[in-house]
Amino acid sequence: MSGPRSTSGSRVRRGRTERLPLVRRGRHRSSADPIDPLDVAILTALQQDGRASLRRVARQVGASVTTVSSRVRNLERLGVLQGFVPLVSVQRLAAVGQSPDCAVLFVLPSRSGPGELERVAQEVAQEPNVCYLFQLSGTNELMALASSHSSEETRRTIESLSKVPGVRRVRSVPILQVHKERPRHPVGSPALGPEPALGRPVLAR
Question: Please, which residues bridge with residue 10 across strands?
Answer without folding.
Answer: 19
